[in-house]
Design a protein that fits this description.
The structure is a single chain. With 150 residues, the protein is of the alpha+beta class. It contains four helices and seven strands; from the N terminus they run βββββββαααα. It has two domains: 46 residues, SH3 type barrels, CATH 2.30.30; 74 residues, Orthogonal Bundle (Arc Repressor Mutant, subunit A). A hairpin with a 4-residue loop joins strand 6 and strand 7. The radius of gyration is 19 Å and the shape is globular.
Length: 150
């Protein structure tokens, strides 16, 4: 699901990919449902491609969002209760991902992640798991199995 949810540098909020044209993408805001073009000069990144640094590996964003959803029982995070003090943000995020890399994950990253989570929940998107995709290996195995049957 997160593969079609986009963040566009310089534009607030999150967007859903609607279509693509010759030199642009057509995206729709998850907040106000307005459609706008995103051009090649815009820095567009899919939430499905984002991972959070930990001390041992990188954890995909969908796992972090799922843990946050489970911790908050599917409710939005009350940002008024969260202070903008870096130590309090890190303490909150430590409950979600205890092993996160404190040197590479900045308080601004934590704020952005919480904001994205609230936007997704507000838009009714609660399933953050990636859709299973057929891999090349699976299709190759099926072809060899079919030819062996003949």
């Amino acid at each position: 699901m997160l593969k079609t949810i986009l963040s566009v540098s310089g534009k607030p909020g999150l967007y859903q990919l609607v279509s693509h044209g010759k030199n642009m993408l057509i995206i729709e805001s998850l907040v106000d449902k307005k459609r706008i073009p995103a051009y090649a000069k815009d820095k567009v990144i899919s939430l499905g491609d984002i991972a959070i640094y930990t001390n041992s590996e990188e954890v995909p964003l969908h796992e972090v969002l799922t843990t946050l959803r489970d911790k908050k029982n599917g409710e939005k995070v009350d940002t008024k209760q969260l202070s903008s003090y870096p130590d309090e943000l890190r303490k909150f995020f430590e409950e979600i991902l205890p092993d996160f890399d404190r040197d590479r994950v900045y308080p601004s990253d934590i704020k952005k992640l919480i904001g994205w989570y609230n936007i997704l929940i507000g838009a009714g998107i609660t399933d953050f798991s990636p859709k299973p995709e057929e891999t090349k290996e699976e299709s190759t195995e099926e072809k060899t199995t079919d030819s062996e049957k003949e």
